[in-house]
Amino acid sequence: MLTKILGYIEKGKQQGAKLLAGGKRVGNKGFYIEPTVFADVTDDMIIAREEIFGPVQSILKFDTLEEVIDRANDTEYGLAAGIFTTNLNTALQFSKHSEAGTVWVNNYLTMGPQAPFGGFKNSGVHRENGSDCLEAYMEVKTVTIALPKKI
């Protein structure tokens, strides 16, 4: 993963994103990478399109909520999404229209064992946690039996 994440960071720089912070391995023991922040990221860059699963943040500018939702959904992934806003209607519209298995509003990575977690699209096919996670271990079966009438 270290090599893969460092590769994403290099690709971000090569594609023209502006590295604002981090971007390097920490020390030579372990597998640590500095928290990394990119600006001037565009939708077509690999760092905006892939699930990196490392300390890499891409900053993309937007004008409208509709634009944000369309751009966020224009991906083959949908593990999670988050929004920070003081407008409840904005939060509800973003949550409703985001194609993500989890949507966080005014927080991020808040999870508990009772809350189902899993993604949409290529980010997963099942749920972890909560009663929904049991579905992966169960099969639904219908049995129909014609019983004789009791006389």
UniProtKB/TrEMBL annotation:
It comes from Papilio machaon (Old World swallowtail butterfly). It comes from the Eukaryota. This is Aldehyde dehydrogenase X, mitochondrial. SUPFAM superfamilies: ALDH-like. Residues 3-143 form the Aldehyde dehydrogenase domain. Gene3D superfamilies: Aldehyde Dehydrogenase, Chain A, domain 1, Aldehyde Dehydrogenase, Chain A, domain 2. InterPro entries: Ald_DH/histidinol_DH, Ald_DH_C, Ald_DH_N, Aldehyde_DH_dom. Pfam families: Aldedh. GO terms for molecular function: oxidoreductase activity, acting on the aldehyde or oxo group of donors, NAD or NADP as acceptor.
